[in-house]
Amino acid sequence: MNTYGVIAKFDTPLALVHAAEKVRDAGFKDFDCHSPFPIHGMDDAMGLKRSKLGYVIGAMGLTGALFGFGLQTWIHSIEYPMNISGKPFFAYPAYAIITFELMVLFSAFGAVFGMMYFNSIPRFHHPVFYSDKFSRVTSDAFYVSIEISDPKYNEEEVKSFLEKMGGTDIEVLKDEN
Amino acid sequence: MLENKIKSKAEIRAEKLLPGNQNFTTITDDIAGVPESKKTPIQWWLLFGFALSLLAIFAGSVGFLIWEGTGIWGINNPVFWGWAIINFVWWVGIGHAGTLISAILHLFRQNWRNAINRFAETMTLFAVICALVFPGIHVGRIWVAYWFLPIPNQMGMWPNMRSPLIWDFFAVFTYFTVSLLFWYTGLIPDLATLRDRAKTNLKRKIYGFFALGWRGGNRQWQHYELAYLVLAGISTPLVLSVHSVVSSDFATSIIPGWHTTIFPPYFVAGAIYSGFGMVMTLSIIARKVYNLGHIITLEHLDKMAQIMLLTGCMVGYAYSMEFFVAWYSGNAYESFAFVNRALGPYWWGYWAMIFCNVVVPQFFWFERYRRHIPFLFITSILVNIGMWFERFVIVVITLHRDFMPGAWAMYNPTIFDVSIYIGTFGLFFTGFLLFLRFLPMVSIAEAKLVLPESNPHHGHEE
ipTM of the assembly? Predict the structure, then answer.
């Protein structure tokens, strides 16, 4: 029987934001606030830094644009110069569309797969899934979870700390064996 | 006592968009209840059977087309672009409203979109699939359709990147891929909801697999929201580019009636117009069959009708401006092309277009008609008939009489033109009905954001 952390339920988005602020101020690092929808102002309440995903998307977009323009230039100037109605081989205005489309395509891949990378998904096993009640978090429940990996973690202290700030249904996450 | 009566703006808006006493639990139950229910409505089975029979017609006709070649169509000198191109442009156009609703309205923070965006995005996906069928089969020898792609081959041959047709291929392909990613990203939290509510192990495994282990933590929402915002941001110029590129298939040629710079904006407006028509048709049916009138409300239908009025007026403006420029240019061929549209042998196509796209939406100036469901249902279908005729006017009427009277001819579609077009409805509705049965048709996570209590600053604004 291994222990992974403690979860506590809160009733409203507002209560969850206040709880997040207190957990942050108490100096915890490995904690998370779970909700059925994104809550406005939660990033600040948890003390999270800005997502770095934007840089990934920007880099991917630039790669896509350069690849698109480079591909067309290489095809028509070097690999396969085709004379069509006497138009120039390096007809860069005509390359704008495909350059743009590939920029968008690459950025979209960057956004989705970058998001998956930063979120470490797909990941089908997580300690929070050991709790049965936690499954309501994708419907109408709001939870704070504090993980055992946090240096300040002490099971009894964390439990009373969460209870004091109004958390209910406090559970210790344990696996079955 | 007085302050209890004063409602915040957010509350008034929420009352209109989510009437009745709704909370996070009821929203989840109502929306997730549809794919979870054991009993499928009888109307669903009837529609699905109908869609499957159309799909069979589609498969048979396309099979015969591949066997026999494009000669089974009515295309002949001088009209070599017939129904296939009309249908391609029509289906792509329908898809555009989905992206407009999910991306552009998201950027403008129009929360009312949250009830219809999933719906509209799904419509986009299947509409673009239907659209992609046509260029695919139009090449005749579809087993070499991969020649579109810039891949190294033994012939040392590459596509001509300066051709609008290859731009079109890249634009529509990108559009499909980005729409799929956008749609799936939006679905992840909802799939997690279905996973957590699943009654059987098999359902939990299937939904759970696609939910990717989503657990709704803010450390996930943080990156998720940024990804979603960026996808909306890049989809916006993308959707505007796609129909502009489609229009350049026509506009870069030198055919009178096609060679105009008004085409890109005019095509985009028409695309949004027809797409909203299709969203309207589908959402009226779905809210009726699944009793979701309290989630997809009259307020939503009213707002969609307003956008149809706007875009309908834009296409109406484009039609009149085309005529003005044809006259003002002093070019005999250009003037003839337009007189021939309105008064030539295909006059009925032109006036059907004017009636459906310019006259019909004028009723939407009046709130009474914007909230009259049977009226909305009929007009939403008329809109798409009108937009089909618009593409018929552009493709067939322009081509059948150009510079040389000796080369004029009429265009006669065959039964296979008709059956493949009708068949794509089978493809579209089969996919769409399966979506309605197995996935949440309204975004569960986003619908909750309309409730004022989802905002922690609610009641603390001052």
Answer: 0.91
